[in-house]
Amino acid sequence: MKDKVVLFFPPYDGPPLGPPVCLLALASPLLAAGFRVSIVDGTVVPDFENVIARELDEALCLGVSLLTGPMIRTAARVSRRVKQLRPELPIVFGGWHPSLLPDQTLKCDFVDVVVRGQGELTLLEVARRFAERLDLTGVCAAWFKREGQILREPDRPVENLNKLPPPAYQLADFGAYERIRGVRELGYPSSVGCPYACNYCTDQVFYARRFNAYRAERVVAEVTELVRRYRLDEVAFLDSNFPVDIKRAMAIGRGFVDAKARFRWTVQASTDLLCRMSDDDVRLLAESGLKHMGFGTESASQEVLALMNKKHQRIDDMFETARKTDAAGMRVTFNVILGYPGETEADRVKTFEIMTEIARQYSNVSFSPNVFTPYPGIPIWPQLREMGVREPRSLEEWADVSLGNNLLPWLQGEELRRLRRMLEYFLLNNQMRRIAAESPRLGRSFRLALGAPLRWRLKSNQYGFPWELWVARTTERLVTRRSLITGQALNHDIKAAC
Hints:
By secondary structure, this protein is an alpha/beta fold. It is 43% helix and 16% strand. The mean pLDDT is 90.
């Protein structure tokens, strides 16, 4: 009897944050229902194509979870090979990208089913239908093909996360990730959704601005047990905006303190929510092991923030966030989006000036700049089309839409070169401050040689004959992008940032 579901997670840019919890969550109800589950994570399995080929024996289907970007290219290649080996085997795509563009995804000849949105219960029902050789008609949130036609079932009502079983962490090989990362780490989603409606974000499209979260007591009990059982050093909370419910966030922090659990954890948040916490609240979170917070500050121009529909984001809150976290001994990363539709060079200059001042006052702040990326489904696509952005017309064309791949027609040529130079000086100035704080003797030498010229460049917005960059490159590599979740450096290529 065929009773095995094979789940594949394609590799992505950057080091893995532990096992793919999305697949472990899908596996849990399948295992409870008596199915066998084989998970192949392309981020840690070098020979994943051949491993998947060997796993196809007695398989009911292959499930693939993916995001927009390069993961698509690998998913397509693997799926085509599976179709060559087992033409009759159904291939099910799910995750962010297929959920946002199910019709386009199903036009691929190697995709048979798309599971939209929350997938745990839908995939279980799909697997049962496959096992019983029944049609998928009536399976909520399942879109599928029949005789060349795409059939669309209505979305499944959103399930409260607390009613879903814990992901099947027992299927994860934490040692495999430790060998790559040098740390035993887990990505842990304690909630999904964010109440804000930023025009560039797919989160509001995917979750309709609904905050769906585990109860605080469940988070504390589950995380502390996972830390103990799997000897975890770090837990990276994957929540879009962890402190939406501030009382819940503080209950989790207090729970970790009371449990005397020794581990580090990281979150993403918005500055307005952090600023609603007292200094004592933030210190308690730091005491509980919270070592890093990532913030989508995006711009320090109120005009650009208005274009982004970030009415909740204020410049004063950026300073206050830096102050509170610095006082608590916590590191933070501020994300910066450049090239947003309607942004001018004056807006960029203002952003770099204000961010530079924040970094001058608070050494715990790092920055992660990137050029605006037009992801599928975001609200401003009509405007983007009018401005000449070409929307990909197939699943595989979306593989080129990722951070670091500039597809904006208004940010090319001399304007792009000037932006890159401006960004290099901004990053170098901030990095030198960090060197000075961490290595006073070396930092003092750099500051004496380059400090005044750098400050003049940034203040006067003059970037010709960049001798300071040539000097700096002989000894230092500029960190151009950091993970908002962990603060870890992701690359040193200025072109990858813009």
